[in-house]
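TICKET: design request
STATUS: open
ATTACHED STRUCTURE:
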């Protein structure tokens, strides 16, 4: 409705009246500076940022989720969902952990000790667990 007011003000311009153009600009400025419009814009932006934050938190990239969600809304959510995860995979259970984690939050294994294992010891452990 506000856009209709602005468009109708420009359509009603009279080429012979020098005061009609400033009046049309004044009408459009009142529409654009309406506090209700700005409250909605800020509210939608914050809502999109929070959803992006939640999606980014699940992917291990909370800051990217917050920024992409605030900037692009649902398109930013898709960007975060389709981007590479920031989580480090646990060698024992295969689930994601934050990069600076000392222990897996799912199985509790010490990630520093597991990362220090040689490839040969990892292969021996797999052979022992396989059985007949």
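STATUS: resolved
RESOLUTION: sequence designed for all positions
ATTACHED SEQUENCE:
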């Amino acid at each position: 409705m506000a856009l209709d007011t602005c468009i109708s003000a420009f359509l009603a311009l009279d080429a012979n009246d020098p005061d009609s153009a400033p009046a049309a600009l004044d009408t459009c400025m009142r529409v654009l500076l309406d506090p209700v419009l700005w409250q909605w814009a800020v509210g939608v932006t914050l809502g999109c940022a929070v959803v992006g934050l939640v999606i980014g938190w699940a992917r291990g990239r909370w800051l990217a989720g917050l920024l992409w969600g605030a900037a692009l809304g649902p398109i930013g959510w898709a960007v975060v969902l389709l981007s590479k995860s920031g989580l480090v995979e646990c060698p024992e259970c295969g689930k994601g952990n934050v990069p600076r984690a000392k222990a897996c939050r799912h199985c509790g294994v010490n990630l520093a000790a597991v990362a220090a294992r040689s490839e040969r010891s990892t292969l021996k452990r797999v052979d022992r667990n396989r059985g007949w």
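CLOSING REMARK: The beta strands are 88-89, 96-97. The chain has a mean pLDDT of 81.
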